[in-house]
Specification:
By secondary structure, this protein is mainly α. The protein contains 6 helices and no strands. Helix 4 runs antiparallel to helix 5.
């Protein structure tokens, strides 16, 4: 049997979404929908970041090509090759980050699609809860009105008795009061039954929404962790390329560059001989 992680005990939905207005279900349901919006927007965010890396890769590739096409003659020529190689490596690294972001986007998109199906199932599964929420809300309103009528009829009845009104008027007022009393009692009993059903279904719904929300947040954090790892790994590798570039430039001392130049281009050490007229 698979055991689910324990729910948060700091913020239990079962006790924090039971207001007297009974709109906790509406709040939790819409919050669930916002989760799907969040994952969709996260996909768009990652796509924008991918576009940045893709642009950097292309620009660095263009820069490498420019460095490779510069003058191959002169003592500075070897350093153009260092610049070319460094730019090419950076271009490749950004392209690798593009590929990793593509995989991440696929995972988040797949999750978003699964969310849509899951939310549809939740909506269907909690249709009974929605009905009982609407029922307790409408019953509460009707009960409040019935209580007002009951109190009003009671006041009217007592007033007529105090004023020694005619027996007929008193009897009529008593009948109205009794009817209001019966209606009020009936609605109190009905509200009690509806409230019991509401409590039972809301308890189940709150647990379901909290399980769903906690799983959603954990999954979204996994995506962010992967995103951070891609950035961190890419940054470390790029720093390594920069460091290597610095070492190569440092190794290419003036003496070494001159040595390479004279090795390849020196025309000889023999001086021209003297010429005499004879």
């Amino acid at each position: 049997m698979i055991r689910r992680p324990p729910r948060s005990t700091l913020f239990p939905y079962t006790t924090l979404f039971r207001s007297e207005r009974n709109n906790g279900f509406d709040v939790l349901y819409h919050n669930m929908k916002y989760g799907q919006i969040a994952s969709k927007e996260l996909v768009e965010f990652f796509r924008e970041r991918l576009a940045i890396e893709e642009t950097l890769s292309k620009l660095l590739g263009k820069l490498a090509k420019q460095a490779g096409g510069n003058c191959i003659n002169g003592t500075f020529a070897p350093l153009w090759q260092v610049l070319k190689a460094s730019s090419e490596r950076q271009s490749t690294l950004h392209l690798q980050m593009v590929q990793r972001f593509q995989e991440l986007i696929k995972d988040v998109t797949k999750y978003n699609e699964a969310q849509h199906k899951n939310h549809k199932n939740v909506k269907e599964g909690e249709s009974g809860t929605l009905e009982i929420v609407q029922s307790i809300q409408s019953t509460a309103i009707t009960l409040s009105k019935a209580k007002e009528v009951y109190n009003q009829r009671f006041v009217e009845f007592e007033k007529l008795k105090r004023e020694n009104a005619s027996a007929k008027d008193v009897e009529r007022a008593e009948q109205k009061f009794q009817k209001a009393c019966d209606d009020y009692k009936h609605l109190v009993e009905k509200y009690g039954l509806v409230r019991e059903e509401f409590e039972r279904k809301m308890l189940s719904a709150c647990r379901r929404f909290q399980d769903l929300e906690e799983a959603h947040l954990k999954q979204m954090k996994v995506f962010l962790k992967t995103y951070g790892e891609v950035l961190h790994s890419g940054h470390e590798t790029i720093v390594s390329v920069h460091s290597e570039f610095g070492h190569q430039c440092g190794d290419a001392t003036v003496d070494k560059l001159l040595e390479q130049f004279v090795t390849n281009k020196a025309t000889g050490t023999e001086k021209p001989g003297a010429k005499r007229f004879s």
